[in-house]
């Protein structure tokens, strides 16, 4: 926290027992608590925790959809562990995709601040989003390299003096999507969640793709609102509202049909 009112957020992930179904990753969740370590000046997750007593309807899902949801939840429940070679390799791969011309000197290095991490050790920022937030960033870098680089280097639009930090914003987006889609529930409890599950059952990479769309949409909103650092939460709320509206549009049969998908460039 700094003198401009920086804030931190506690992230809880609540265990949900999911029954196995039949197609598309899987596990039981644990509680993960602690600071998501967003940078100061007000950059914190905009998603408030939902009370256990909140009563909402659930939607019936097919066995195949149930299995896809379980598999995605398994990914969500994996914490980033700097001692696991697979996680180390993914982090190196992210650096190489972001800065192919610059050799990384170590997994703990001041260089990471160039990507918008809070400090020299990115693992401390993954507590809010887990390993999937790293996978999301890597998927974005590989699938839409031009858009990834444009956002990383703030190359589009009339940028403000105080910009959002790219990498930490990316972790925030992962966490926001998990809450918006209610992915820790056994079954979808909102129409948005039910709609997304349909896309997920048809495309195993649907969450990663929606992440890319959301990141680009967030930056688009940032520019449209002429936002600066302290406006990040307001921008995230506007992004979430727009995304929910688009997911519920008629004639949307796949994520590529979303209006905001057109913002992405490979």
Automatic annotation (TrEMBL):
Domain annotation ELMO: ranges? 86-247
Question: InterPro entries in the record, alphabetically?
Answer: ELMO_dom, ELMO_domain-containing
Organism superkingdom: Eukaryota
Q: Which PROSITE patterns match?
A: ELMO (PS51335)
Q: Name one Pfam family in it.
A: ELMO_CED12
* Residues spanning the signal sequence: none
Enumerate the PANTHER family for this protein: ELMO_CED-12 FAMILY PROTEIN, ENGULFMENT AND CELL MOTILITY
Instruction: State the protein's name.
Output: ELMO domain-containing protein A isoform X1
Q: Which organism is it from?
A: Theobroma cacao (Cacao)
Record lineage: Eukaryota, Viridiplantae, Streptophyta, Embryophyta, Tracheophyta
């Amino acid at each position: 926290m700094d003198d401009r009112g920086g804030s931190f957020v506690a992230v809880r992930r609540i265990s949900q027992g999911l029954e196995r179904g039949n197609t598309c990753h899987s596990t039981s969740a644990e509680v993960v608590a602690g600071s998501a370590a967003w940078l100061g000046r007000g950059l914190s997750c905009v998603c408030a925790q939902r009370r256990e007593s909140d009563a909402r309807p659930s939607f019936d899902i097919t066995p195949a959809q149930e299995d896809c949801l379980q598999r995605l939840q398994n990914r969500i429940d994996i914490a980033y562990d700097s001692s696991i070679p697979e996680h180390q390799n993914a982090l190196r791969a992210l650096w190489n995709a972001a800065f192919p011309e610059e050799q990384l000197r170590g997994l703990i290095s001041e260089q990471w601040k160039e990507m918008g991490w809070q400090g020299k050790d990115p693992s401390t920022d993954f507590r809010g989003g887990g390993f999937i937030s790293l996978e999301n960033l890597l998927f974005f870098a590989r699938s839409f390299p031009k858009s990834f680089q444009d956002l990383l280097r703030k190359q589009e639009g009339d940028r403000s003096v105080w910009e959002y930090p790219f990498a930490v914003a990316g972790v925030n987006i992962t966490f926001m999507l998990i809450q918006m889609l209610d992915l820790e529930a056994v079954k979808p409890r909102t129409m948005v969640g039910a709609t997304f599950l349909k896309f997920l059952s048809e495309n195993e990479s649907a969450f990663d793709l929606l992440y890319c769309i959301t990141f680009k949409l967030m930056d688009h909103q940032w520019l449209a609102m002429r936002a600066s650092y302290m406006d990040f939460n307001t921008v995230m709320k506007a992004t979430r509202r727009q995304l929910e509206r688009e997911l519920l549009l008629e004639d949307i049969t796949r994520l590529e049909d979303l209006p905001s998908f057109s913002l992405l460039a490979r």
